[in-house]
Structures are given as C-alpha cells and as structure tokens.
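Give me structure tokens for this 333-residue protein.
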Amino acid sequence: MKILFVALVLTSSFARAADRTKVLGNIRGAKAKECFRVVDQEGNPVEGARVYGGFMLDSPNDYVLIDGVSDTNGEFVAEGRCKDRLGYQITKENYYKTSGEVLYLCTKADPAVVDGKWQPFGEKRTVVLKRILNPIPIDRRGAVRDFPVPAYDVWLGFDFERVAFVAPHGEGKVADVLMRFALHKPSDVEYHMTMELSFTNHPYAGAYLMKKDSYSEMESVYVADTNAVYDSYFKYSFDRLPGKIPVRTLLSSEEYLVFRTRTEVDEKGRLVSANYGKLHGELHFVGPRGLSFGQLAFNLKPNDPNLEDAETARRSMESRRMELELRRTSRNK
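Here you go.
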C-alpha cells in the first residue's frame, strides 16, 4: 500500500515534466541532496511536518523513497539517487498541504552532474506550509465554463453572488461588476475579441491582481487588503490573423483578482461598507459561446475581508485524515 501511495503522489509530477526527460542513461545513478527548511506563512519554522515523496528514476514506480519529519528548526534533508526529478509533499495537522518538485536536467551544454552528484548538491530550499487560521463559510463556485454571453457591445451587470447576469439578461439581482463583450469576425480564420470589466458603478469598488501560491492548497491570500489600490477597469482580448500566431491577454490560470464591491459611502463620501471576494483565472472570453473562469469566492458578510473559505480547509483536513489512515493500514500489512 505504501508503494502504491507514493507512486500516486509522484505520477502527476512525472507526467508534467516527461517532455524534459533528456538525461543520458549513464547518469541514472547520480546522487541528489536537498536541504528543506519548512516555514509557515510568517516565516516561522514548522517542526514535525511530514515530508514524503521520492527521487524518480525511469517511471513513477521506479524511485528512491523519502519520508520523514522536519526538526525543531523546520529542517529536513532528502538524499537519494535520481535521474531527473524529486517530487514531494509536505503535510501537518492544521496546515494546508504543500506540493512541489525539483527538476534535474543534464545536457551537453549544461553538465549538472559533477563527480556523480547533481549540482548544486545539498542546496538549501525554503518551502512554505500555510497554517489553517480562520476559515469561514464563503459562497464558492468553481470552474464555470462557456458561460453564455447574452449581448455584445453593451455594458451588462453581473451578480457575483448568483453567478448570473442581471435582468433582463439573467437571474442576477445586484450588478457587482459591469462586463462588455465585443466580437469582430470578418472571416472564419480572422477575428478580434474583447472582454471589459468595470467596477465604476460602485464608489471605491475594484480589484487588484495577485499571483496564486500554486504550491499550496490555500492558493490565495487569507484576507483582502482593504488599503490596497483597487483598479476599476480591466480589459482582456484575443486576436487572430491569418498566418500569424494568436495574441491573447487574459487572467491566467496562475492568477486571481481580489475584488471589492457592493460599497456604501457616508454623507461625506467616505467608504463605510463593502463586500470582498476573489475571482480565480483562467478568465477569458470563449468566442460566441461566452466567458469562462476558474473559481469565484464571495464573502457575503459586509466589511469582512476574510477570504479563507471553510470548504478548502475541510478538504485539506479530510486529505490529511485519509493520509494518516493509509499510513496506519500500510504499517499493519
């Protein structure tokens, strides 16, 4: 069971990097050493974090196992013979799991193996293991694809809570953001598409761009920054011309927007109330079929910038429970 478990952990890593396996067979036995330092999101060392995975050789079932825990300084040393990569996961109770890989590649132009060792040998590598802090129930919708666009060249209100355009184009009630779509298609092989997002219908509303912490189950920030600069306008486009490579701008799958909407101001024009949320990419305009985005999480409690949703925390704790059960089963075999 243990072998099967580690093989499953490494399979996705192996598949993603398979096209980079260009290492000569005579370095199959090269030694590798990585010195991990596990810290939390504030940089404090995490003791007792489990680090497991393996140095891969020819396939997900051909590897050198690593499995241990970090010491009082959050440190753990992984050593083994390796052909091209180390895949690892790091877990601890009340933390979000961290996953990653270290790629080793040796070519004639870049001989990374010296005296039978991958270079740099014993490199220190800091990895972040985020704590589960204060998860709350958040309206969370995932992977909305090919969402129909009801009209072009006009501003359309979109309701983040209901995930729908507002009347008369949908069942939405509040226009949290305005969207406008344009499609110019003079032929089957030539077209220009744009999608605009505007928060100008609410004072002080807008969004700011962030890069996902893709190594962690908790990919985003915990809390929206209420003092950040919230941009009120975003534009994405796709251009395709005959004989040329398509040019596309979009909110990528590695990015997300932290947004503020449903704002209220006092008699002096000062912001007194707002709702916060996050829109994960990939966000783009899918031709005449509509728009697509990765995930939408909306905190419906006014003036609460907390973006740590309880569902992500629940899944993380459930994954940890299943992992511990699998280890116990493996030991009893």
